Here is the input.
Amino acid sequence: MGETITFWVLAVVSVGAALGMVFSRKAVYSALMLGTVMLCLAVLYAVQDAPFLAAVQIIVYTGAIMMLFLFVLMLVGVDSSDSFVETLKGQRFWAIIAGLGFLALIVLAIGNVIFAPETGLAAATQGGGYIRSIALLLFTKYVFAFEITSALLITAALAAMVLAHREQLTEKKTQKDLSRARFLGDRPSPLPGPGTYARNNAIDMPALLPDGSVAESSVNRYIARYDVEHDHLPEDPKLAEAIKHTAEDDKAPTEAERDAESNEVTK
Amino acid sequence: MTTQYLVLSGLLFAIGAIGVLVRRNAIVVFMCVELMLNACNLAFVTFSRQVGNLEGQIIAFFVMVVAAAEVVVGLAIIVTIFRTRRSASVDDANLLKY
Here is the structure.
């Protein structure tokens, strides 16, 4: 009885989360939904006499793989939402039809089978308990596959390093070069801080200069763009104008900036 | 209960397959592949209990290991594509070279 209740609750949650994963527009939501599905499946494994797999599922899937997904999402850009342009005409429609047809095939096939009562793992785990039986199987019958797995993992780690490596094309700038470039440029000093202490206690408020004019360079351009897009502009028209101006400057980053950003992304 | 578990597994697999076909963001497509692998694992574990044999759980364990390796390489490829194309959309990756 307990298993039935657990199953139905988790089945509803996991199918709902899976649907949410496929149909949510933001990739981070998809990642969190996938984490939910994986946790539900971990509990289902535990219910089905597979506590070892439940632990591995939580440690490997929700612990390692989901974190990797989130890392890459943050690297690639959280706001990279899907485009709704269809490259192939009617592809979405036919994809859903195909998926539902596939589901119908599976469900019909399973529904036609009459299963014998579950054997259970009692007989299989007789010789010394569950963990011992798993270990016995893993290190005797499947020991070769287990060894091959280590080769696979080493290859994967190596491949990730090779793929993510970026060749340094220009010479690395030393502190001396950076300092020289700074003093030859327009502004040897650091940029002014935002107006945290001027009139508002927020970092998206531009600072005021001693003569009362607005220091545009004191607002981070990403924050300015966010403010413009979400309509969080301050009431003071002078400040609002400055934020809009900063945000517009951000719209067209120069080639050099874009390169610098891509360098940052890959670091 | 075996039938219910298998239907749930098939349902999750189908949702993952629809996601792979429908979504354009390479990372989300990858997540859907992971969902399909998870659904297969559920079927393995269910059958393991049904026939009273631990080998199903061993196979599910190997599937998890292979999935971990696959995710590492796949995400590295996605990062590489993003670096050259400035986009994680599968539609933009339409050339084998450059």
